[in-house]
Amino acid sequence: MNGRRIVFVGAGGAGLTAAFTLARRAPDAQITVFSKDPVVAYSQCGMPFVLDRKILDFNKLVIYQPPVFKDLGLDVRTSTAIEEIDLDGRAVTTEKGERVEYDRLVIATGSRPFVPPVPGVHLPGVHTLLTLEDGKALYERLKDALNVVIIGGGPIGLETAPAFLDAGAKLTIIERVPQLMPSALDPEMAAIVQAHLEQKGARVITGRGVDSINGTARVESVTCAGEVIPADLVLLSAGIRPNTDLAKQASIDLGVTGGIVVDEYFRVRRNGKVLDDVLAAGDCAEVTGLITGKPVIYAVGSVANRQAKYVADNLLGKKTPYPPVLCPAVCVIGDLHVGNVGLTTHACEQAGITPLTFSARGATRARYYPGGKTVDIKLLSDGDRLVGGQIIGEEGVGGRINVLSLAIGKGMSPADLAGAETCYAPPVSPLIDPLTYAAEMLALKVARAKKSQ
Amino acid sequence: MNGRRIVFVGAGGAGLTAAFTLARRAPDAQITVFSKDPVVAYSQCGMPFVLDRKILDFNKLVIYQPPVFKDLGLDVRTSTAIEEIDLDGRAVTTEKGERVEYDRLVIATGSRPFVPPVPGVHLPGVHTLLTLEDGKALYERLKDALNVVIIGGGPIGLETAPAFLDAGAKLTIIERVPQLMPSALDPEMAAIVQAHLEQKGARVITGRGVDSINGTARVESVTCAGEVIPADLVLLSAGIRPNTDLAKQASIDLGVTGGIVVDEYFRVRRNGKVLDDVLAAGDCAEVTGLITGKPVIYAVGSVANRQAKYVADNLLGKKTPYPPVLCPAVCVIGDLHVGNVGLTTHACEQAGITPLTFSARGATRARYYPGGKTVDIKLLSDGDRLVGGQIIGEEGVGGRINVLSLAIGKGMSPADLAGAETCYAPPVSPLIDPLTYAAEMLALKVARAKKSQ
């Protein structure tokens, strides 16, 4: 490999995993990982389920303890923010003033929850959920909360919603757009999620923004479209923003999404010129969307983790191009598994695609076999290819999203997916899988549309 | 459509489903369906779970009642065996002597359990499990059975095994080959199934045949490799044979598998000459294996059901070629879901393929999330393509088999599968899906093997 000194700024899913992979494959590398956080190597995605007491302790989310880093020869510096990157001098400077030189630098500074510019948003009692500290702080407050407001209908807030309800709080969820999870779901699929949350006791307000968060010493209420909603705890879940301050300050190019522009080898640019010795990956960097070919930011653990392997390859001089990203995802909201992959109808329209769609409701087991669940499926096609899918149910969602991800990723048509054989046993699936049925119906619709053209 | 009078012989998954599809799409067709069985339109695959009392009543397995047939204009003649097919006269004759003419004939006579040529095999108390009557008879006997022997390690017998154990019987399973489920699993994967059954209390004997079934008025014991094993109930589960007597008698060509030879439009042949007006489908007919290109019989409900659509298309004059078959399958044996698709190592060797394989044990959820299960995965490749896979676990098997089925069906390599993005949420999956991991490792093995050539 070119140069032995590798510095990572950030120890999340992209940075730390890449550092681990590199350490295993290049034992002679001198790897330093800086994180502003006191604890690293934990699962952020698990936090809603600790809050909901499915998982008994935040410490269970910590995947590697510091001795593992030492064993691997990794120098992981926690609670150490980087203040400056000196691209010309090939060095970073810590907040403590230490200057550390590198041969290769990886910027993996991640993302942060978006804090909407609303009066009162910085009052005590207004939380975000990103770091383990955030999780622990929320857990402490959760016990005493009587009135909770979640601002934003994104997946992290909705995954956390049952924790508030189970703790006995009165919960209001406010989403500015007229539906929950607008970046993942079409409106009628989001309505299934909304109905589930309402059935569990939440009040859901969509299509109205928050005017202000109110209180003196701490939060007391939220004003939404003129209505004052009591709140002793507020959780912001209104999307994320990439952490790019450090990159921006070093004059590294940012893209239209606000994220760091990288090429397929994760190399950053300065004034349009590719820098061979500086990579960026994870939530802070743009990726290319598979269907649209356009830059996008997917702040999802599985994407970051997947990138880490490519980053390590490229640090080792093995030029492995990172392909465009589809980002299949699933989240668990109460009893519902909510999955999506590719484009929603809205995202299609933004990309100039008028999608043909088919929606089906099926079952996860033979109808005479007890315990089966309903599964709702919506598929989208641009006519030739499948371009997106959404699946919601109490079981059998993840596997079907992965089937769809493979099909969309390989450019298959609805007919291709309909033609794929599926397995059958009464306790495991219906004779005809609902995904197969939906694909068949969409294929017919596509064929009819082509005929009528 | 050519000719309005369509006769189906057999009302199982292929015949009745094709008749239903045809009736819906061609309301003017005059469709007659003959079945030797008194009840049709039920789920054979559900019977093990009625025996095990997961499903409370055999009647729940009946999917359509006779009034539905009438509503659709289908003339379904139950308890009416066909004695003869007159190909030249275009007619069938029932056992009651009625002659019914056809314009198009569909032979869907299904399969029957193989009855091994063992002394005593016809004694009362020796059962097979194919029809609803078989199921009910077994259910009645099950209550009083103290000592049960299952002859054959096929999936139907193994799915039924827990019913005997739960009823308190002492159970012995005898398989002549040195492993259970030899046509679906590699030996070490079958060992997982065997250990599960043993842990539930079954005795499993492999690699030894049955010498005789003994008794006077009814079965009393089974002799296996010289050992006399007490038995008041015996279940034969030693594979199936296609029902071809009627076809054979009409001089319709049979193939190397013993099944009826059909072309891609399900048309049979007489003395090598294709007959345009006679189709055969379901367990009685050969299909072409996707990987080997060779004829094979898959007596599986999902395959028969899938064929029905193509049969209906072809009866309607819409020539839709039926593609080669991969036959993904899953069965449920106690707590285990046991899935397979494509070729086993043994089947590879028979086809002249020396497979590269990788076996992985993974988890179905994030390791810190409660309730996750172990999943065992084995993948096989011929170097370029994935050619088979086996997955065993208490959950998450069916979805992954379907991913594999899509990948193998589309001729993907292990690297293609490893490159597919998968969704992630701690309660639904690990960060890296075990199937992705297995595919990655197999891709590495394939790359190394190519390099060393």
Automatic annotation (TrEMBL), chains A, B:
Q: Please name the GO terms that the record assigns under molecular function.
A: oxidoreductase activity
| Pfam families with a match to the protein in the record | Pyr_redox_2 (PF07992), Pyr_redox_dim (PF02852)
What keywords would UniProt list here? FAD, Flavoprotein, Oxidoreductase
Q: Which residues form the Pyridine nucleotide-disulphide oxidoreductase dimerisation domain?
A: 330-429
Q: Which ranges carry the FAD/NAD(P)-binding domain?
A: 5-288
Q: Does the keyword Oxidoreductase apply?
A: yes
Q: Which domain of life is it from?
A: Archaea
Q: What is its EC number?
A: 1.6.99.3
Under SUPFAM superfamilies, the record lists: FAD/NAD(P)-binding domain, FAD/NAD-linked reductases, dimerisation (C-terminal) domain
Any signal peptide, and if so, which residues?
Answer: none
Cofactor(s) needed for function: FAD
Gene3D superfamilies listed in its UniProt record? 3.30.390.30, FAD/NAD(P)-binding domain
The entry's family comment says: Belongs to the class-III pyridine nucleotide-disulfide oxidoreductase family.
Q: What is this protein called?
A: NADH dehydrogenase
User: Lineage of the native species?
Assistant: Archaea, Methanobacteriati, Methanobacteriota, Stenosarchaea group, Methanomicrobia
